[in-house]
Amino acid sequence: MFDFLTAPLVVGILTLGIYALFDLLVRRKERMAIIDKLGDKLDKSMLEGKLKLPTFRNVNFSFTSLKIGTFLTCIGIGILVGYLLCAGTITSYIDGDWTWEKRQVASIIYGSCILISGGIGLLIAFFIELTLKREKKEK
Questions:
Q1: Structural contact between residues 114 and 78, judged by C-beta atoms closer than 8 angstroms
Q2: Nearest to 70 by CA among 115, 117, 113, 111
């Protein structure tokens, strides 16, 4: 169906790959040249105290991953609850005997379960974040 796209797509990918390879090699040569030029001027005493691993004691962490994780988990639970509600309340839901009214009811059930459980997931993430911040302040 999309046979007309394969030739330009292959040519584009090959061109991009060759360009990226040459760019990588040129950058490496430039970096090596800079290191060679600076190699004579650098002493070990100049780098003392500057090459340390970062410490995360005073850094404010964001709880984005916690929020996203609880949100997506609760949305998955909402989809499952929506399916169970549809299978339990709508007659012949599993058999596939659909009418317009049954589709509308199923979409309302799925939508409401997903939105409610997503909101619950964000509330759970908020309360976890709040308790962790309180524990951090107490220490």
A1: yes
A2: 117
pLDDT, tens digit, 9 for 90 and up, residues 96-107: 777 888 888 888
User: Which residue, 13, 122, 9, 132, is CA-closest to 69?
Assistant: 122
pTM for this predicted structure: 0.52
Tens digits of residue pLDDT in 13-66? 999 999 999 888 888 888 888 878 877 777 667 667 666 766 666 666 678 888
- CB atoms under 10 Å from CB of 63, counted, come to 16
User: Are the C-beta atoms of residues 71 and 118 closer than 8 Å to each other?
Assistant: yes
The token duo for 135 is 């524990």
How does 96-114 read in b/e, with b if 16+ C-beta sit within 10 Å? eeeeeeeeebbeebbeebb
Question: Can you give the residue ranges of every domain in the chain?
Answer: 3-44, 64-134
- Mean pLDDT, residues 119-129 taken together: 90
Are 94 and 87 in contact, with CB atoms under 8 Å apart? yes
